[in-house]
Structure formats: C-alpha cells, structure tokens
Amino acid sequence: MIRAYKFLMRPTVGQTIALGEMLRDHCSLYNGALQERRDAYRHVSKTSIKYGMQSAQLKEIRAFDPERQGRWSFSSQQATLRRLDKAFAAFFRRVKSGETPGYPRFRGVNWFDTVDFPKDGDGCRWDATPHDPVTRVRFQGVGHVKVNQHRPVAGKVKTVSVKREGRKWFVVLTAEQDRPEPLPATGSVVGIDLGIANFLADSNGEFIPNPRHGRTAAAKLEAAQQALSRFPRMRRDKRTGNHRRAVEKVATLHGKVRRQRLDHAHKTALTLVREHDFIAHEDLKIRNMVKAPAPKPDPDRPDGFLPNGAAAKAGLNKSINDAGWGVFLTILTSKAESAGREVIAVDARNTSRQCPECGHTAKENRPTQEKFSCQSCGHTAHADMVGATNVLRAGLVRREANPA
Fold it and tell me: What's CA 71's distance to the chain center, in Å?
C-alpha cells in the first residue's frame, strides 16, 4: 500500500529564494506548454499536441535557457508537463460526459505551489545525509534542506514533492509499505449519518457536535478580507508591503481553519476505526449538494427572475463546506484500510424518512430537522439516529450480497 507523509522544511534564506525560483520556472514551463497547445489547435488546423511531443522538446528548452530551465531536474519538468496533460485529459472527459468543461487555465506564480519529483534519487534525495542527526532532503539546484521530521517514514520512498503554503515550505513523500497488521476485532458494527446540526450521529445513539470552524473564524476572516479589498488591483511590481501583509493575513486564517477541520476529521475517523469492525455511511454526492439553484425567469418580465431560494441555499452550501464531509470520508476510508476495517457506502435516499420499525417511508415522517415521527406506527426518535440505523441496515445487506 502507498502512504503519504508531509514534513515541514527549514530552508535557509538562500534556499528559500532558490525554491521560489524553482516554482517560478516550472510555472513558466507549464504556461508555455499550455500556450503551445492553444496555438497549435487554433492556428495549425486544430492540431493536438500530446505530452510525448512536448517532453521531447525539453532537451532543447534546457539548452536554450540554461539559467532558468537547465538548472532544474529533468524528471521534475516532465512531471510538470504530465500535470498539464492530465488537466487536458480531465477537460476532454468532462466534455464527453456533458459536465462543465473548464478549459485548463494559465497559472500565476502565486497559484503554482507544487513541484513533483517522480522518483526518489532522480533530481532529489530523501534523507540525503543519513549519518547527520538532522534529517535533510536534497533538491537539484537548491541543496540540502533541513526537514522537521516529526515521525519515522516506513517503507521505500517512491516520490517526493515540494509544496509551498504561505511562507512555509513542506516536503511530501509517498512510500510503499507492506500492509500493516489489522487491529484486533471488536465485534462492533455501526452506521453513521452526517449532518449540519451534529457533525455525526451513529446507530448506537452517539452524537458528535459540529465544531463549525469556518463560522467561528468568520468575523476575523471578514475583517481580513475587507482590509485586503481596500487595495486596488495592481501589477505585481507595484504591490506594497501592506498589500502583501493583508494577503498573508487572509491566507493564514484560511490555513488555520483548514488545519482545524483536518484535525477534527482525523480524530473522529480514528475513534470510529478503533471501536468498530464495520462502518456504513451514506454515499453523498457533495458536489451536487452544493450546487446553486438554477435561475427562474419571470414570464411577465423579460429581464426579471422569480425567487429561487438562492440566498437560503447559499447558507446551506456554506455550512456543508464548513463541515468538511468529503475530507472526513476520505480520511475514514484510508484509516479503515490501514486498520483492516470494512467501510461501505450506501444509497442516501430516504434514510431519514423510512421508519426503522415498520418500514413506512414518507416525507411527513420527518416534520422537523431533528424529529422523526412515523405516520404509520407512531414510532418517534431523533431523525439523525433513524438515518444512521437505516444506513447500517443497508450496509449490512450490501455486505452480505457482496462478500469479500
């Protein structure tokens, strides 16, 4: 199995400058390759340029510009071109499936924050000085950079990436490991229902409150965004120190909320994995859930629109994004795989409207957000706990139908 590690780097002033130049030059390579593809399609009889054609030009590009392109790893530049190729592949996939295409865009220097090295030892070297008590990673053109390694890396390192987050620099590793020993069986099964009022309710009647990290930081974020909005749009060379500090303030607050959300997701998922052998959850289509409602044209006014509940839906979408369901489910699945636990996603339709006692399903069974009252047998309970119970039953049925 493949596991990722992320460590904070401690570069010197000179290494920080070199890392920034590496990102800048890879960003320039990415944008140049994108421009070549656009020009070839528009002006040369709709010719499509593939990754192999652009990768073959790297040798000439490096020889033509040795100061900016020739100093960096050849394999990392191939990875940057491969990233562009994946963006085009995703674009054409969305076109074929009828989704919003989203043509690949040019990247600004501040929006290009990662450089990948496909193989440890090719342009980079993890733990380049094994006899040094301080862990270091070596990058071509940068040197040996100190790393704050807070835990050991198990397995063979496969890929290495450099990532910039604000003023901080991180190294991200992927390592191939043997499958770890599963946790001891507990004999417990559980179904979970994700929500807004409570982050999670399980079929055993336990509730985990929603921390609402985004809402807690909303006032500070609003003040920081207002301070940033006072600066007019200007060229990069015209931006002032106050503008830079305002940008960093907004980024710092967003980064803190993101880390808080990740921490809560990791701790909640770890608790579930340790206590239960089998976990069932709703198969949520979060991207569809947070879509804005379609506008409703007013037939009486050519340029008018009818109310469509967009304001209320915007508030709900914000709460869903703040809860971080998608991140939590991804982490839960990863931890369950490492621990030898089983996780199954089931259809979320009517899980909170079906009576767990008699099976009667109706919209009227859930008169409020929290209350469940069956119109057939009179069974009453918390709506989220009813949903978790139905999710567990559906998950057990699916496990029996598809044994491992």
Answer: 31
Q: What dihedral do alpha carbons 69, 71, 72, 74 form, nearest 10°? A: 80
Q: What are phi and psi of 4, to 5 degrees?
A: -105, 145
In this structure, are residues 243 and 214 in contact, taking their beta carbons and an 8 Å threshold? no
CB neighbour list of residue 119: distance below 8 Å, 6 or more residues apart: 75, 158, 159
What is the chain's Cα-based Rg?
26
Report whether 15 contacts 143 (CB < 8 A): yes
Task: Tell whether the torsion through CA atoms of 280, 282, 285 and 286 is positive or negative.
Answer: negative
For the chain, the helix, strand and coil percentages under 3-state DSSP, each to the nearest 5: 45, 20, 35
Interatomic CA distance for residues 199 and 343, integer angstroms: 18
Q: Residue 278: in which H helix or E strand, if any?
A: strand 278-282
pLDDT in tens, 199-253: 999 999 999 999 999 999 999 999 999 998 888 776 666 778 888 899 889 999 9
Closest CA to 343 of 267, 404, 390: 404
Terminal Cα-to-Cα distance of the chain (whole angstroms): 18
User: Which residues fall within 8 angstroms of residue 319, CB to CB, at 6 or more apart?
Assistant: 196, 212, 215
CB atoms within 10 A of CB 300: 7
Tokens standing for residue 183: 């946790």
Write the DSSP symbol of residue 351: T
Structure token digits, residue 179: 């499958």
**Cα–Cα dist 190/273, whole Å:** 10
Q: 210: closest CA among 142, 156, 264, 161?
A: 264
Q: Over the stretch 17-57, which tens digit does the pLDDT of each residue have? A: 999 999 999 999 999 999 999 998 888 777 788 999 999 99
Give the span between the Cα atoms of 386 and 352, in whole angstroms: 6
